[in-house]
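Researcher: Going back to the complex we discussed earlier. I've cleaned up the inputs and rechecked each line, so this should be the final set. Can you rerun the prediction on the complete assembly and write out the structure?
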Amino acid sequence: MELLFNIIVFPGLLYLLLWTVALFWFFRKFMAPLHKRVGPHFNGPAGSYQTLFDLSKLLSKESITPRHVNPYLFSLMPLLAVIIAALPTALIPWTPGITVVPSDYGLLGLVVLIGIEPFLLFLTGFGSHNKYAFLGGIRVLTQMISMETAFFLAALSPALLFGTLNLQTIVHTSGWVSFLVLLPGFTLYFIALLGLLEQPPFNIPDAEQEIVYGFYTEYSGTNYFLLKLAEFAEFMALFAGAATLFLGGYRGLFFDGYLWLFVKMLAIAVFMMILRASTPRITMRQMLRFSWRYLVPLSLLNTAWVLLAKIYFFGGAQ
Amino acid sequence: MKRILRLFDAFETEYVEPYKSSWIKAKLKRQDDLRAVAEALKEEGLRSLVTVSPTDFPDESRMEMNYFFEDLQTKRNCWLKCDIPRTPDQCRIDSLTPLFAGADWSEREAFSMFGVDFADHPDLRPIIVSQDFYGKAPFRKDFDWEAHEADTLNHLKTIVNDFEKEQQNSDANLDPDGSETVLNWGPTHPASGPIRLKVHCDGEEVIGIDPDIGYVWRALEHLVTQKDFIGAIVAVERLCFMDNINSMVGYCMAVEEIAEIQITPFAAWMRVLLGETARISSHMMGLGGFFNMMGLHTLAMWNMDVREFFLDFLESYSGARIATAAIEPGGVRYGLQSNMLDELQKALDKFDATKEDIRSIFVKNPTMKLRAGTLGILTTDMIEQYALCGPVARAGGVRTDIRLDEPYAAYSEVEMAYITQETGTAKDRFTQLFNELEQSVDIIKQAKKRIEAGIADGEFNPTKDHMVKVPKKLPKGEAISRVEWARGEVLMHLVTEEKAKSPYRLKMKAPSFNHTMMLDHLLRGQTLSDIPLVFGSLYICQGDLDR
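Model: Rerun complete. Updated structure for the full complex:
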């Protein structure tokens, strides 16, 4: 019974849908004043129904499968993308009580599931039989390969520090000192997160002005809805991952609970949006150069720093 | 100038005479001399061939070719004419493209519109027009538009078939196992606007670009001849709606020159005031477009916010925000009321309040510098060779600005200087636009002060002085006028017949035409990511590209 509740309501399907609708709205509404606009306005209080309507519109629209594509690959990938993107929610400790799949290898699962996602997006582009979609797919792959090294190394630094892959233990044992020690790791994680989520300045794979809409180009209707859902599930997985690994998850001042986790995720989202409003996109070459010349060496250095910190501040390995 | 006059001694000419302050007007007797004269002019320093404009005279069975040569450095210009026969098989003249690279598209346009054949042109394909006009010369006076309308139906499928054949060819000519492909960047691409760039690329790397233009061809130059001299302004202002005022100023100057009338000082100052407002409205969009091309829409939104205030002023003056039709031969269309200047003051205040934010966030943006700082370099040599103009030329360090070179309206009394950048990169073109915004605001302040002072001491009567009467019928004549439009130099070549009620021929040379030619040169060897950025930095508008 409890498992069913977890799957359907929290932190499963309904929560995911609500998160998508709310975050989508929040992105729009938060971006608007930065652009000196109003944003969604007419439907519901402060336009809050707008995204709900948009998503339901997408669901009811005709889903067009272009000629010459493999229809199974074309329509299966969005579905798979949602499932893979939503799975990490099962591993994350949402509240002191709720972790759907408590595991000693939670972090490993999280990192692997996040790592698979771009490959599915590449396959959507590959299966679209469209030059722009294919270019988008190639760009996703390139970006994934160059960003994930740094991402893995950064995400594993808490595991090194605390000597465990169990996410619950990581949340429990984190504190102010560990937060400071992991601060460089958090910065690296955040930069890699921008790359994995295709956010400016790394929104190269769906660069609208260059390759139309990248791997999304041929998608419409339900399939497009599923891809968008996957994107927001991916936001959730990465934000929640950051909050859990580096910011102490659900723990907070005065009381522990989901609210703190939510606030931390939102803070990351806000920071991401401010970057989005002020930073133009860089090119593929610049991204590659940045990633391999600076990001990866720095994350190796960060690993060394965490190990040193562990030896000198945390009394070495048990 | 004397050297240019003397240069014509070696050739047989019907006349050689100075025209305006900086032009020599000459007509050759023999068309075979054209290339030799052009070569001599080029050696003399007139390295830019701005445009080629044929005029069709069926009654005299001749086609008059007009060539406009400019020297961007010393501001000496030459207007060269010569007659060629107009029968289709003899309508032939030497191409100047081997000497002046910038003549390439101009000659292709003359070929498409008038059926002039250019010998030795390297790539004489039709441009702008679609397949149903191929081989038809729509701008000739005896072109039968009705017969063409009837014939259009036969061509409905041709365009589709040709497109499909072209796609198949481009696939077949490339190695099927290689990574080369031809991308259609436009005409429905998110960043392209109505233009199609055929991008031949290898993965992300650009091998070559062939622009296909004409998607918004409205045949404005033909449309003008169907209207009376006042009605023509609505066709002229549609050159590009961003800066509609200055293109009308150019046209009206040509009409006034033929009618031999002088506009009042008040109208001249109003032209400066309105023209700079329109320039600001255009530059605001240009600046925003540049960042849009890098996926950042914030600047465009912020600029729109400021731009609205300037449009408020245009609306209070003319009743329309975009297509104002506010300049008319003889002056400006409406009188001025004091509350209109209050609107302008609000806009100026808004600009001053937001300027520093935009400078610190966008003009000094490190990511923008990283991307655009070394990209799309236009050297002085290329600018002269391809006859580039306006902000694009000035960003490459060429001191050219018609407002200073050949002052019109009241610009001779305005205090202003050339604004230039040094290296001609995409970033320089962006910075150039921003600096020109500040210059325009400064000019508006001067004009506003002058107009207010003039009204205060009774020198100007704002409700009566705005217009002098222009006769409805104009004498036979011919004139050229140049204005510094937002995107660069617009050259209008107007021809009228005896007792004409409407223009006989109006050639509008618009900047984007030459600028689009540069895409291929600037983007070879770059990546797909650089296409929108360079495209945006060249400040191209499809309106004046296709006309």
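Model: Worth noting: The first helix of chain B runs from residue 2 to 7.
Researcher: Good, that matches what I expected from the previous run.
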